[in-house]
Amino acid sequence: MASDPPFEQSYNHLFEALSEDQKAKQVHPETNSFANNEIYELPLIDLNRLSLTKSDQDECKREIADAAKQLGFFQVVNHGVSREIITRLQSEQAKLFKHPFREKASERLLDSSMGSYHWGTPSATFLMQFSWSEAFHIPLRENCLPSSCYLRLNRYPPCPKSSKLFGLVPHTDSDFLTILHQDLVGGLQLVRDGGWISVKPNPDALIINIGDLFQAWSNGVYKSIEHRVVTNPRVERFSAAYFLCPSNDTIIHSCNQPSVYRSFSFEEYRKQVQEDVKSTGTKIGLPRFIIK
Ligand SMILES: C=C1C[C@]23C[C@@]1(O)CC[C@H]2[C@@]12CC[C@H](O)[C@@](C)(C(=O)O1)[C@H]2[C@@H]3C(=O)O
Ligand SMILES: O=C(O)CCC(=O)C(=O)O
Ligand SMILES: [Fe+2]
């Protein structure tokens, strides 16, 4: 049965290459998987301590800063978003993605002021640049003027094709920071000590990761770490990511000297990322802005 979205039909040129490659190398789809990594529990930070004594607050802040410097990722509990809200978001998200592909891809389901629909990777020229997923970007400008924050609702359909495909290709986030909730399926991986580790899901926690703008702003102290999502052959997966972004004209300066990165506006940064993705299939990101 064809997948929804119709990845194989629309990206036929990429998938033909996969079957040829598998034939040539006699690779079974389940071998060489990305999924057999160490399962790692992110540093867990109880935000409740921010409302306790000064020493509790200081300890909590220190833990956040340490995790942001070393790993670029941590998870928080007692964050103030109730279980009920998260469950409602998950059920609305599942309902939205259940619409047939032709409705999701048409302008009618969400008009453009309410968000945009993305699926696969139009710029991919080979399979390693392809993401087996679909997403809605919901702008949150009304509530967060004048920023360009948005919510990205991700769905990763089961991928019977090959465990060598990504649900979402390796990338860093282009924002200040991202707040992510993932369901229990698992599949998020990040780079630690030069290798990939899998993040253990915790339904009560929100995952926070440092984005590129925070890394530039902190002059490289807080780390925007490369992460990816691996596919699952049988189970669909959902996640929701909130991207904390400034207004387009905000200039990002390093907080001290000598600065590693030249100053740039958020608009310039986003345009450069999009241009690179379009022309090379891959995001280059901050290395483009290093002062030589
Ligand atoms: C193909 C790509 C688009 C993207 C950068 C990437 O190389 C891989 C991930 C994509 C993503 C996902 C989260 C954010 O929406 C985003 C802005 C980011 O930082 O990484 C997008 C990138 C994009 O749409 O330009
Ligand atoms: O689905 C996930 O766990 C991660 C999603 C992500 O990295 C993104 O949307 O930028
Ligand atoms: Fe991301």
From TrEMBL:
The protein, known as: Gibberellin 2-oxidase 8
Which controlled-vocabulary keywords does the entry list? Iron, Metal-binding, Oxidoreductase
Q: What is the lineage of its organism?
A: Eukaryota, Viridiplantae, Streptophyta, Embryophyta, Tracheophyta
Annotated ranges, domain Fe2OG dioxygenase: 147-246
Alphabetically, the GO molecular function entries are: metal ion binding; oxidoreductase activity, acting on paired donors, with incorporation or reduction of molecular oxygen
Does Metal-binding show up as a keyword for this record? yes
Q: Which family does it belong to?
A: Belongs to the iron/ascorbate-dependent oxidoreductase family.
**What Gene3D superfamilies does the database record attribute to this sequence?**
B-lactam Antibiotic, Isopenicillin N Synthase, Chain
Q: Species name for this entry?
A: Actinidia rufa
Question: PANTHER family from the entry?
Answer: 2-OXOGLUTARATE (2OG) AND FE(II)-DEPENDENT OXYGENASE SUPERFAMILY PROTEIN-RELATED (PTHR47990)
**What is a single Pfam family found in this protein's UniProt entry?**
2OG-FeII_Oxy
Q: Which superkingdom heads the taxonomic lineage of this protein's source?
A: Eukaryota
